[in-house]
Design brief:
The complex is a heterodimer.
Chain A: H1 2-24, H2 31-36, E1 45-51, E2 57-59, E3 62-68, E4 73-79, E5 91-99, E6 102-111, E7 122-128, E8 131-134, E9 138-139, E10 142-150, E11 159-162, E12 165-168, E13 177-184, E14 189-193, E15 205-210
Parallel strand pairs in A: 4-6, 7-10, 9-15
Antiparallel strand pairs in A: 1-3, 1-5, 2-3, 3-4, 5-6, 7-8, 10-13, 11-12, 11-14, 14-15
Chain B: H1 5-24, H2 38-64, H3 68-99, H4 108-130, H5 132-142, H6 145-155, H7 176-206
Helix pairs in contact in B: 1-7, 2-3, 2-5, 2-7, 3-4, 3-7, 4-5, 4-6
The chains are: A mainly beta, B mainly alpha.
Family (chain B): Belongs to the CcmC/CycZ/HelC family.
GO cellular component, one term (chain B): plasma membrane
InterPro entries (chain B): Cyt_c_assembly (IPR002541), Cyt_c_biogenesis_CcmC (IPR003557), Cyt_c_biogenesis_CcsA/CcmC (IPR045062)
Chain lengths: 213, 223
């Protein structure tokens, strides 16, 4: 009987603790919540979200990028250390304070996914109006193959540049495909653009990372 | 000393885990070689959960049928589990520094894992200071930190990624050789922990029982 009472007390206590945690624990806020309930200028906030691909720019002592929750975007200027794993297109949590709609961050944490896979030696690249789509974001160092397809309605080509890399396909008619082979140096960041005049500013750019192994 | 069969099997498992984790599994696309820390961090956390399950089971049985063997099993599992929890935390910090960019942050998974370590320490202290029955109650209550730590990344916003293998989605977002290395390492850790716990139970049985707290004798009883 006493055991039963103790068990009930423990479970009840556990449920209470869980409720308290569930209501009280908000490890980070989202850009939408920041926009709806702006913090005081001197309040320290922690915001999490997805780093918008292509929004990352290096600054003298850090990086600037846009954090999104899919509803609202929050511009971030981070001063301080940046993890080598940090990249656009994946999650991040930042700490700092708001200044005129911009989050001035001094602590940047990379939220990596629960996916684990080796870097690939071959991936597909799609060219459309107006985007360069990449199948896998990270390549294996060494000889690699890009299967490039023009899935658009007008002519495109693909130019790949990076430190030690310069490769391009011929201009591809809609529906045409080409294979691009080159040596990917370890740790390189490759820029992918369409070289047809005017297509790059319309959005036909992308990046591929080479694993640093 | 003659090597025991179980000891040899456990050692073989450790060697198999080393080979699969270091040689068979490829480096990760995003994290590179650092991702190999998963093959020790995850098994350490898993066996820490298992040890608390043993503490819980031994505690429940002991509350019904108080027997010193159950206290010894609980205490041995508690000691090994506390060490494994600390190991999981330290390995997590070593992994978090280069990948997340920080040694520590009070995210729900890290916080609840510290709670779990505190529950282990409270359980062991209760056993030393207040005897087996109090320890069993503390151990059963403390076991609640295990589902809390495991569920934290599913229920709340966290920096720590959600589980890969024990994910509720039912798909495995991990390459086959990496999954093999993780499973071999987890099996090896489980076998090693079970072996160490069994040996500790035997050594506790051989040692004289710890001195009980001095009884409060009524005044004048010594005369």
């Amino acid at each position: 009987m006493r055991l039963l009472i103790a068990a009930v007390a423990v479970v009840a206590g556990g449920v209470l603790v869980f409720q308290a945690l569930d209501n009280g624990v908000v490890y980070y806020r989202t850009p939408q919540e920041i926009a709806q309930e702006p913090p005081e200028p001197d309040d320290r906030v922690r915001v999490g979200g997805l780093v918008v691909a292509g929004s990352v720019h290096t600054m003298p002592q850090g990086v600037s990028f846009t954090l999104t929750d899919g509803v609202r975007n929050l511009p971030v200027r981070h001063t301080g250390e940046v993890s080598p794993v940090f990249a656009g297109g994946q999650g991040a949590v930042v700490e700092g304070r708001m200044d005129g709609g911009v989050l001035l961050s001094d602590r940047l944490m990379v939220k990596h996914s629960n996916e684990y896979r080796p870097p690939v030696a071959s991936t597909r690249v799609g060219l459309t109006e107006w985007a360069v789509s990449v199948g896998d974001p990270v390549l294996r160092p060494g000889p690699v193959t890009l299967e490039v397809t023009n899935a658009g309605a007008t002519a495109h080509d693909l130019i790949v540049t990076g430190i030690g890399v310069s490769a391009h396909t011929p201009v591809l008619a809609p529906g045409q495909a080409a294979t691009l082979r080159f040596d990917a140096p370890s740790g390189a960041l490759l820029t992918l653009v369409c070289g047809v005049t005017g297509h790059e500013p319309l959005g036909m750019t992308g990046t591929l990372r080479v694993a640093d192994l | 000393m003659r090597p025991s069969l179980t000891g040899s099997l456990v050692s073989a498992g450790a060697v198999a885990a080393l080979v699969t984790g270091l040689a068979v599994a490829p480096p990760d696309a995003v994290q590179g070689e650092l991702q190999r820390l998963m093959y020790v961090h995850v098994p350490a956390a898993w066996t820490a959960y298992l040890c608390f399950t043993a503490v819980f089971a031994a505690g429940l049985l002991r509350l019904r049928h108080p027997r010193p063997e159950l206290d010894r099993i609980g205490r041995a599992a508690g000691e090994v589990g506390a060490g494994l929890t600390a190991l999981a935390i330290v390995l997590g910090m070593v992994w978090g520094r280069p990948v997340w960019g920080v040694w520590w942050t009070w995210d729900p998974r890290l916080t609840t894992t510290v709670l779990m370590l505190a529950a282990y320490v409270a359980y062991l202290l209760a056993g030393r200071l207040a005897g087996g029955r109090a320890a069993a109650i503390a151990g059963c209550a403390g076991f609640l930190t295990v589902p809390l730590a495991h569920g934290s990344v599913l229920w709340w916003r966290a920096l720590h990624q959600p589980p890969t293998v024990l994910s509720p989605e039912g798909r495995l977002p991990i390459a086959a050789p990496m999954l093999a290395a993780l499973l071999v390492a987890t099996a090896a850790f489980t076998a090693l922990a079970a072996w160490v716990v069994a040996r500790r139970v035997r050594s506790l049985a051989a040692a004289p029982p710890p001195p009980l707290p001095a009884p409060h004798l009524p005044a004048g009883a010594a005369r």
